[in-house]
């Protein structure tokens, strides 16, 4: 993995030019797993009389965080309870820009979906799935090579001036590091430079890279740093990730209704019980052992893609039953889950076997 391959430069400029298409932004959900209060006296007292105070702070000058599990992308993150996630991938990049990656997603967390024209705080998370194991490099060394040498105050091709880059934290195992630097930009030749402090947290796994990007004016960055630090510190990679690969390849998009249905069913129903979580742990180990290869073959073979889409239809139909089930206990989750599994065994194996035997008897 080359430092030159980091999609940070185009992210800043290219996104600004195309993200005005806000109707294309899709809001989506993860599974909330807990609430935590974090002291933020300086921040909350500084914005006491502003509207954003009510969105972020409580009466005790604390920020209430929710821990959200994005199993489809392989991570958990804690964000202020008022912040919502918006998938801005399609509005920031053309499909060809990420074609070299197995999966690529950009998520904007904030009160406001308008990533470039907002007075609200927020951060951008970018996940890159390479589809196969990558040779790991030390995260700190990687950031130093990618940013520090080139962040020398010289304008780049997009008109940005980067300076004062320095690594502000890293893990000894080499999997995580963070860097902070100053970005200056002129809207045009007659304008004054606008200054933004940018903090990037880089996390690398076997085949997936995560980039958390926090940017704000110097004064606001100082205020919101308690939020940004907490988010960066509590970001965690879960056991797998990669999403509903086979269904995504079959229906063409992470945002396809069928894929959204599977994701929401998993996050909002199955993962809300201990038995469901245990089932998903075992299932993920099995599923991700073969699904990347199947998904790749779907993209290469349209006929196979249509076959898979047709084969998934009975499964999707049976899973809709769980939408109408009132699951309030572990026993109910086990009962409905076993029932759906048996139903699918009947549809995919028993019924075809009976049909084959009946045909053989007539021959």
Quick synopsis:
The chain has 363 residues and is α+β, with helices and mostly antiparallel strands.
Features:
single chain; 363 residues; alpha+beta; Protein Transport Mog1p, Chain A; disordered N terminus
How would you characterize the overall build of this protein?
Helices cover 42% and strands 25% of the residues. It is of the alpha+beta class. It has two domains: 235 residues, 3-Layer(aba) Sandwich (Protein Transport Mog1p, Chain A); 118 residues, no CATH class. The strands form two sheets. Strands 1-5-6-7-11-10-9-8 form an eight-stranded antiparallel β-sheet, sandwiched between helices. It has a four-stranded antiparallel β-sheet with strand order 2-3-4-12. The longest helix is centred in the last third of the chain and has 33 residues.
